[in-house]
């Protein structure tokens, strides 16, 4: 479960295209998607998908990082590089240095020269050594593990719906995406060398923010959505009613997260009376929702692309409304 949350975090924050693509492939595999489905969505070959999955199983998260090669031979040996990474993980107070409380690249380089670790080292070289040694500038973080006593049962229930859809109904995944607003979003585009596209930054939200209530039909692979200014229980109940009208006579298995509006008494009562089963994941297990990987692709391939015209908005990208 910890790996699932970490993959979800990488799919949202990764800036390297190779790392992001590999993380999305692994997350889709963890959610039970087949290789043909992954190749169709990511536009890669089946061999690439299998190679990424096998490499992740063998190496873990290190398999997500691209391995570049080439260049001149290293002037600093591997043993010295390990020593540098070890010193970087210490505090200046450990070396009886009270003038500052943490290392900067300049201070660390001066300290390495003073300790005769290296004759000289630039900040750029030091930065690369620390990056290769998997030492990075980080803040303290917290972590959560699932305290759900029924974690295994709930996880197997969702994966069983993905692997063996019931014959008496339809499995859909539901989640909210947002808040969304019409401010420029940084992305990537093919441009002349050293001539990036510039977007005027703005934080004015004259029309407020919006939320997308989305539904992924696993039988057809289509996504349906509604755009609303709020995401309360009443908006969610309205979405369920539209799904009931769209697929009459079928039992609906709705996979969704533990967002409080999903568990409102009115929502539960209406769903039970209209042959809709709400399938909740375990606590801190929202990464099991298949629609999360679709949101990652939407965020990267649609929202993060700079618009070609100031009036173009994210709603102009092809999608099917509920």
Automatic annotation (TrEMBL):
Name of protein: IS630 family transposase
The organism's taxonomic lineage, starting at the top: Bacteria, Bacillati, Actinomycetota, Actinomycetes, Kitasatosporales
NCBIfam families linked: transpos_IS630
UniProt xrefs under InterPro entries: Homeodomain-like_sf, RNaseH-like_sf, RNaseH_sf, Tc1-like_DDE_dom, Transpos_IS630-like
Domain spans labelled Tc1-like transposase DDE: 170-299
Tree of life domain: Bacteria
Gene3D superfamilies given in the database record: Ribonuclease H-like superfamily/Ribonuclease H (3.30.420.10)
């Amino acid at each position: 479960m910890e790996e699932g949350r970490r993959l979800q975090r990488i799919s949202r924050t990764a800036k390297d295209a190779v790392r992001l693509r590999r993380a999305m492939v692994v997350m889709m595999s963890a959610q039970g998607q087949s290789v043909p489905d992954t190749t169709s969505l990511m536009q890669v070959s089946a061999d690439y998908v299998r190679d990424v999955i096998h490499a992740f199983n063998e190496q873990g998260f290190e398999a997500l990082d691209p391995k570049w090669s080439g260049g001149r031979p290293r002037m600093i040996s591997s043993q010295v590089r390990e020593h540098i990474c070890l010193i970087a993980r210490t505090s200046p107070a450990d070396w009886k240095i009270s003038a500052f409380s943490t290392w900067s690249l300049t201070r660390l380089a001066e300290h390495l020269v003073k300790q005769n670790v290296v004759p000289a080292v630039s900040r750029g070289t030091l930065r690369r050594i620390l990056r290769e040694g998997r030492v990075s500038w980080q803040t303290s973080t917290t972590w959560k593990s699932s305290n759900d006593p029924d974690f295994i049962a709930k996880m197997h229930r969702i994966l069983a719906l993905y692997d063996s859809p019931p014959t008496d109904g339809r499995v859909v995944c539901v989640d909210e995406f947002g808040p969304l607003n019409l401010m420029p979003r940084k992305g990537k585009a093919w441009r002349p060398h050293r001539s990036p596209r510039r977007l005027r930054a703005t934080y004015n939200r004259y029309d407020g923010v919006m939320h997308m209530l989305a539904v992924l039909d696993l039988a057809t692979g289509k996504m349906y959505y509604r755009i609303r200014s709020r995401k309360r229980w009443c908006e969610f109940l309205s979405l369920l009613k539209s799904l009931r009208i769209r697929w009459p006579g079928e039992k609906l298995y709705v996979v969704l997260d533990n967002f409080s509006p999903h568990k409102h008494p009115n929502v539960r009562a209406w769903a039970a009376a209209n042959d809709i089963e709400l399938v909740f994941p375990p606590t801190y297990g929202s990464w099991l929702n298949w629609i999360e990987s679709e949101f990652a692709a939407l965020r990267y391939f649609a929202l993060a692309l700079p618009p070609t015209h100031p009036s173009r908005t994210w709603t102009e990208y092809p999608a099917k409304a509920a």
